[in-house]
UniProtKB/TrEMBL annotation:
Domain Radical SAM core: 238-447
Cofactor(s) essential for the protein: [4Fe-4S] cluster
Manganese recorded as keyword: no
Alphabetically ordered keywords of this record: 4Fe-4S, Iron, Iron-sulfur, Metal-binding, S-adenosyl-L-methionine
Name the record gives this protein: Radical SAM core domain-containing protein
PROSITE patterns given in the database record: MOAA_NIFB_PQQE (PS01305), RADICAL_SAM (PS51918)
Lineage of origin: Bacteria, Pseudomonadati, Thermodesulfobacteriota, Desulfovibrionia, Desulfovibrionales
Family annotation (Pfam families): Radical_SAM, SPASM
SUPFAM superfamilies, A to Z: Radical SAM enzymes, SGNH hydrolase
GO terms, molecular function: 4 iron, 4 sulfur cluster binding; hydrolase activity, acting on ester bonds; metal ion binding
Amino acid sequence: MDTVADAIADAAIFGADTVIVQAGIVDCFPRISSREDRERLNSLRPELRDVIRKFLRENRDAVLAEAGSVVYTSLETYRDSALQAAMLAQRLGLNIIFLSIVAHSDLEYATPGVMNNVEQYNNALREVCALTECAEYFDLTEFSKDKELLHDDLYHISPQGNARLALLMRNHLVRPASCASTGGQAEGKKLQAFVKARAEVLHVLGGVLAKAGHTARADAAEKAAAQTIIHFPSRRTGNIPTSAFIEITNHCNLNCTMCNTQMSKRMKGFMSPEVFDKVIARLQSVGIYRAALHTVGETLLHPNLGDLLGIARKRNFSVFFSTNGQLTGKLEKILPYYSGLFNSIRFSIDAATPETYALIRKGGKIERVWKSFQLIRDFNVAHGTNFGIVTNYILSDTNIGEIDSFIDHVSEFAPVDSMKFNLPNSLSPDPSFLKEIFSFHSLIYPTGYGCMLPFNTVAITFDGKVSLCCRDYDADLTIGSFLKDNPLGIWRGKQAEAIRQGVLGVGECPGLCAKCHNVSGSEISSMFIHNARALGLRDLGARLWSVLAAMAHDPYDLGGVRKACLNALS
């Protein structure tokens, strides 16, 4: 167990109701040098390094008084970490108790400033507890005043003190809960039940695969089950974004059920080659060397796509894009020249028959997609290449019965494991469609409980604005200009932080984020379908739907989920 987040996740796994966090003095203890200072000191010649260390030790009090002190963890980071822990506990349906930092006042004589730091950091814990419904601050001031309850260092609790603390905690916890179960906690408990139900499905899948002799697949399912349990990473903003989307256009030639792109009110346009070049240069300046070339538009519609790809190649910048596969002619023009820039293309295709395809992807024809697949296969044969086809199939009540025929046909062009199957989300100008195309409404949950995008991703619109969402139809989450502003300045700026606080639930949630919902079960859909197919089963959609029905009926009934999964795999 490495972090508080790990402890909270473990507590949820074992069905605990409350997590107790003992805050220590290490974060706020005054120091005469920072970690960065010590790293620089260690890089010096040994004789010089030793002289400086000796001087600092012998003159510690004077250095503290003259230059002020640094701390191991800044007050801002400390408050943010505590808030992250409290929000994670709430998302998992847990209570969390923060025990205050303990320090006897005699420490002040040896280390000036320590008591002021302790008070500030304890106040930060109080603020966090005031902001979150499930968090409680437990004051241990009496321990700080009684040396019998402390070790000789005056900031660690002694065995006698620990015995007293255990008694206090026992008496405190048997009382009626000081922070009653809230809507957020109830949602968190339900969401954690979904996490355990998904893990149960993967455990069953692994067992069935092992019995059938599919050892590698069984191991992968068991590994996925273990990873599924730890579902909520700690969301902290990095110094730089780690991934990027470049919207070269927000025009689209279709109006699919899941997107309703035509409802977007934002001005339509194409990114110019000059802007594209500047965007790539700026991304590289902050350490990003790969980006997707789409957000809500169709990449192949760009009239100068070849020029953009040429710029990317010249700058040694990797790209990835997704297409609806309707523009075979455009694909034919770029493939011979730029296939080395990306080794595959993802095709969004959610049907196997012309009728269903036309119903979902309004304005499109499935025959054009098959033609694009044939183009790539012919290209590979002619050039001895292995350019890949990846498919993304959004599962719904409309197309669930076509999975077998879809795999049968697409497997002529691509391996089954390159076919991705996901449940829908509600990111659309009109999110009401989700409940219309997906029957299991109880599996729908707010994306904000686990969304990582505002904390690690930038999306650059065609006119150079920066958004914290890759599907920002109307630029609701823009935080500045990627062309005019300092990229790192706006990444850590007030607008960006306000959006993140809203997503975390401790500020006003942006409208786009408030309407965004996901479906539990999407995380296991591809693995279930791929492996059921490997077991020689048919009617894959109905089998998956029966498992999701059990999860939707009662996610707390793991026995029922297990039985449904075994039946689905028989």
